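Good morning,

Attaching, inline, the C-alpha cells for the sequence recovery test we're adding to the shared suite. The designed sequence is right after.
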C-alpha cells in the first residue's frame, strides 16, 4: 500500500525584513515606459550577482531577454519576480514551466545581491516561487547556481550523484539549496575561449576533422535564418538534445520538437536582441542532419558570444563531427563577428568528448554551475 506524498517541510526562515517588496515582472508597454521598472530592476540584480561570482556582467540578463521570455507561452511559461528593499533592487525569482512535455517539472531560481544576503530576502522569494510550483502541481524542481572556482577534492567540496565535478560546500547558494531539500545531481563546467583563435591552428582542426569525416558528411553554415528544407532536421537534433546529452541524475524526459517550434524558438533569439549562427553537418547519403552547433550574438554586447546547443547524434559519432562543426563555427565568427572577444560555453563535467574538443580549441575553465533537483 502506498502513502500519499507530502511536501517537504519548510525550513525556519528569517523574519521578512521591513521595507521588502516582491513584485511580479510583467511585459511593459515599452522598455522606456514607467511600468518597465521591474524589468530593469531584474537586470540590475542579475548584473550584481554575476559581478559577485565572475567579476563581469557577460552572463547577466538584459531587458530584451527578460521581456522576450515573458511573452513565450506555447511550449513553456516563464514567471519572474523582483524584490526591492527600501526601493532598491536586491533579489529576483524565476519559474519556468514546461507546457507540452516534462509537465511534472519546473525550473526555479532565486538570486540575491551580495550586499543583501542573510536578511531574509532569499527566503521570501523562495516562498513565492515554491507556492507557484505547488499550485501548478509540479513534483520535480530543478535549478542551477554558478560558482568559481571549482574547489579541490576534500571536505570543503560537495560532489554530485555522477561523482564528477565539485561545488564549494560552504557557499551561500549551496547551503540555500541543501536547506530547501535539493540534491546536487550534476556539475557543468563553464569555459571561455578568447577570440580570435589562431587562424593556422583553426584551419588545421578543420582540415583534420574534414578528413576524418570523409565524403559522407557535408557542412552547412546558416546565419539568422534556417532554410525551410532543414527545419525538420534541426527539430530532430533539438529533440535529441533531451535524450542524447548527459543529464546526470536529473529527471529530464524527451522534449519533442517540430519545424514550427524550431522556427518560433530561433525567432525569439531575434526578439531578445541577438543574432545567431548555426553550423550543421549533413549525412550526404541520407540527407539527414547528423549534428550541429549554435551560437548567439547579443547586439548590444558585440564582444560576447554564447555557445548554445551542440550535439552529434549517437549513430554518427566517431567521425570527429563535433570538432568539425565547432571549428567551422569559430572560423565563421572570425569572418563575420570580428568584434567578438570571447565565447562562453557550458558542458556537463562527465561529457568527456565535448570537453576534449573544447580544450583542444583553447577553451579555459571559468567556473562551474551546480545543477540541483528536488523531488516532492
Amino acid at each position: 500500500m502506498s502513502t500519499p506524498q507530502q511536501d517537504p517541510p519548510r525550513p525556519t526562515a528569517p523574519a521578512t525584513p521591513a521595507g521588502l517588496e516582491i513584485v511580479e515582472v510583467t511585459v511593459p508597454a515599452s522598455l522606456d515606459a514607467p511600468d518597465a521598472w521591474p524589468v530593469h530592476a531584474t537586470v540590475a540584480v542579475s548584473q550584481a550577482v554575476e559581478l559577485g561570482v565572475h567579476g563581469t556582467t557577460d552572463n547577466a540578463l538584459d531587458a530584451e531577454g527578460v521581456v522576450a521570455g515573458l511573452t513565450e507561452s506555447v511550449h513553456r511559461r516563464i514567471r519572474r519576480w523582483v524584490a526591492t528593499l527600501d526601493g532598491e533592487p536586491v533579489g529576483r525569482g524565476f519559474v519556468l514551466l514546461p507546457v507540452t512535455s516534462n509537465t511534472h517539472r519546473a525550473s526555479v531560481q532565486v538570486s540575491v545581491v551580495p550586499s543583501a544576503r542573510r536578511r531574509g530576502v532569499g527566503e521570501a522569494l523562495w516562498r513565492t516561487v515554491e507556492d507557484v510550483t505547488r499550485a501548478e502541481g509540479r513534483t520535480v524542481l530543478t535549478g542551477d547556481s554558478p560558482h568559481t572556482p571549482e574547489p579541490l577534492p576534500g571536505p570543503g567540496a560537495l560532489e554530485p550523484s555522477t561523482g564528477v565535478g565539485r561545488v564549494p560546500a560552504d557557499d551561500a547558494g549551496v547551503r540555500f539549496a541543501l536547506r530547501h531539500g535539493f540534491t546536487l545531481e550534476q556539475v557543468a563546467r563553464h569555459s571561455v575561449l578568447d577570440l580570435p583563435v589562431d587562424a593556422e591552428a583553426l584551419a588545421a582542426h578543420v582540415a583534420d576533422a574534414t578528413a576524418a569525416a570523409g565524403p559522407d558528411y557535408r557542412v552547412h553554415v546558416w546565419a539568422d535564418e534556417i532554410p525551410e528544407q532543414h527545419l525538420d532536421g534541426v527539430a530532430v537534433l533539438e529533440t535529441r538534445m533531451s535524450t542524447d546529452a548527459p543529464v546526470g541524475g536529473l529527471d529530464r524526459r524527451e522534449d519533442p520538437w517540430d519545424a514550427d517550434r524550431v522556427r518560433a524558438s530561433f525567432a525569439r533569439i531575434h526578439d531578445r536582441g541577438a543574432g545567431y549562427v548555426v553550423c550543421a553537418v549533413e549525412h550526404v547519403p541520407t540527407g539527414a542532419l547528423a549534428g550541429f552547433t549554435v551560437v548567439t550574438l547579443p547586439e548590444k554586447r558585440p564582444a560576447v558570444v554564447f555557445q548554445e546547443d551542440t550535439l552529434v547524434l549517437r549513430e554518427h559519432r566517431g567521425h570527429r563531427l563535433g570538432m568539425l562543426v565547432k571549428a567551422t563555427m569559430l572560423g565563421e565568427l572570425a569572418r563575420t563577428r570580428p568584434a567578438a572577444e570571447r565565447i562562453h560555453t557550458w558542458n556537463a563535467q562527465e561529457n568527456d568528448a565535448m570537453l576534449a574538443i573544447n580544450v583542444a580549441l583553447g577553451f579555459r575553465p571559468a567556473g562551474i554551475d551546480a545543477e540541483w533537483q528536488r523531488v516532492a
